[in-house]
Amino acid sequence: MPDLQTDRLEALLESEFQFQSGQFKQAFSYYQSQAAGQLSAEELLRGMQLAAVLGETSWLATLDAVPALAEATQIDLIRQRFERALLAGRSDSAQQAWQALVRHPDERGIYISRAVIETHAARHQLTLHAALARYAGRPDLTPVERFELFQFAYQWRLENLADRLEGGLPPESAEAALASTLRECVEGAADACKRRLQRLDPLDLNEWQRRSVLVLAQKSGDAQQHRRWLEALPQDGGTYYQRIVLLGRAMDDVKARALMAQIRKDAALDGFQRPALLGSLSELLKDWPEAETNYREALENGVPTTASVRLAVVLFRQGKQDAAFGQLQAVAADADLSDEIRRDAFQTEIQFHRILRSDESDVEVLNAIYRRGLTHWPQANPLRYQYAMRLFGQERVEPAMSELQTILKSAPADAEALNAYGFTLAKELNKPRAAFKPIAQAFLLAPEQPEILDSFGYVLFRLGRDKEALTHLEKAWRLTPSAVTAGHLGQVFLRLGDRQQAYDYLEKGLQLDASEAELLALQERLR
Predict the structure, then answer these.
(1) What is the Cα gyration radius of the chain?
(2) What Å distances lie between residue 86 and 56, 62, 267, 301, CA to CA?
(3) For 442, phi and psi rounded to 5 degrees?
(4) How many CB atoms lie within 10 A of CB 459?
(5) Is the separation of the CB atoms in 440 and 450 below 8 Å?
(6) Helix ranges, 356-465 (H)
(7) What CA–CA distance (Å, rounded) separates 50 from 443?
(8) What is the longest distance spanned by two Cα atoms in the chain?
(9) What is the DSSP string of 304-349?
(10) pLDDT, tens digit, for every residue of 451-501?
(11) What are the residues whose beta carbons fall under 8 Å from the beta carbon of 189, sequence distance 6 or more?
């Protein structure tokens, strides 16, 4: 706790209490009321955490010139500095923060720097490349730094830089062996990669080097090597979970029970991690009552987690359907949980109803769930689109079109919604002229999407532009053959006077779906 005047200290303590209580907006008001240059490193860290959660980008932008942030040695603040430099496009500052993380005495620095880079690589590629070049040009690089930079230069196909970095590694060093292994596993055959991985001894490598090899083992597709290098790491909640995932791909009851015993004995795991992991293993072993007990114990610790959804799954597995649905609905309605967890609960509820074939008794059951979901997330356009497609499937064209219109009001460049809206205008409502504009917009946004190519071709056909239609329909067929596209192609060829081609597409389409209405109508016309 920094040395502060009494009134400010009281305000900070009140803010921290609100933070711990989940009242983030109230907690953040303290940081908004202070001059950024007067905040300590500890205050900056908490303030930045809150600002990130609340989307307070304007406040974050005021911190770039704050001395406490530029000079901080706390690893989380250096991470923040790295991210801020990337967002601002400052390669020099990014290089300095990157180096500070890699050279940090806390070994987590390397992993944190990698996480930042992986998160921002797509959007800030040029800044990262420039930062890498600056970093690689330093004359005092250690072998650790040189190999770390080599990995990124190689990954980003900066071949000259990668060769230079690798060439500077001590020939007999572990880093040189790792660089050769990386090249072998990316460029060589799978067997050669496996032999390289087998030759490496985890005892000869430190933890960050083992983690580098683990990445290669994961990509190699060799489950045995993947497991070997995973088990060579210090075991914690993350590595245990990855081992459980591997077991799920190739279940072995003996190994599952041995891992369960190891987790039970691991005193480093906390009161949430242990039961959550044991719950996952119990699921693999299909011990649903034990899984339920473990998940309930994990949730008693109050950690927001997908265990709340997994609890519903094991309840459902035991035939406790009402309890399972109640659990999912409680999770979906809990505003303190992340949207990811809440939406997972919502999608799981839909899946349960599909398993139970609820539509066979009452088609409104799932409709009501979609409407409830949209009250929670009115801006969730993918969810609204799913609901619209469901309504179309029920031949409720008017409400489905209304849902699509809602999407297009907030997202006028949503290609899927434009396509569905335009195609319905042309086909169901017989308004091909009105359909042309939304379909053409969808085509401009996604010219390689088969469904949109098919719709564009169909609308052009309806407008009498047969040769143009043929170009798009044939491309749609090449990309993804479908019974609907076959029917559209048959109609175009028939109007162009080529009955043989129309027959050919009719036969091809019927092999894909003998009940497709377009094809049955074409069949009648060809008799």
Answers:
(1) 29
(2) 18, 16, 39, 36
(3) -60, -40
(4) 27
(5) no
(6) 364-376, 381-393, 397-410, 415-427, 432-445, 450-462
(7) 41
(8) 93
(9) --THHHHHHHHHHHTT-HHHHHHHHHHHHH-TTS-HHHHHHHHHHH
(10) 999 999 999 999 999 999 999 999 999 999 999 999 999 999 999 999 999
(11) none
Mind listing the pLDDT tens digit for each residue in 333-350?
888 888 888 889 999 999
For residues 278 and 256, the answer to whether their CB atoms sit within 8 Å is no
Predicted TM-score (pTM) above 0.70: no
Q: DSSP letters of 350-379?
A: HHHHHHTTGGGT-THHHHHHHHHHHHH-TT
Sign of the four-CA dihedral 222, 224, 225, 229:
positive
Strand, helix or coil for residue 520: helix
d(CA 429, CA 254): 61
Q: What is the pLDDT of residue 80?
A: 81
Among residues 518, 496, 500, the alpha carbon closest in space to that of 509 is found at 518
Angle, helices 207-220/190-199, rounded to nearest 10 degrees:
160
- Cβ–Cβ under 8 Å, residues 204 and 172: no
Dihedral angle, C-alpha 218, 222, 223, 225, nearest 10 °: -80
CB atoms closer than 10 angstroms to residue 128: 22
What's the pLDDT at 5? 66
CA distances from 44 to 37, 67, 109, 376 (A): 10, 11, 19, 33
Q: Please provide the DSSP assignment of 502-516 as one string.
A: HHHHHHHHHHH-TT-
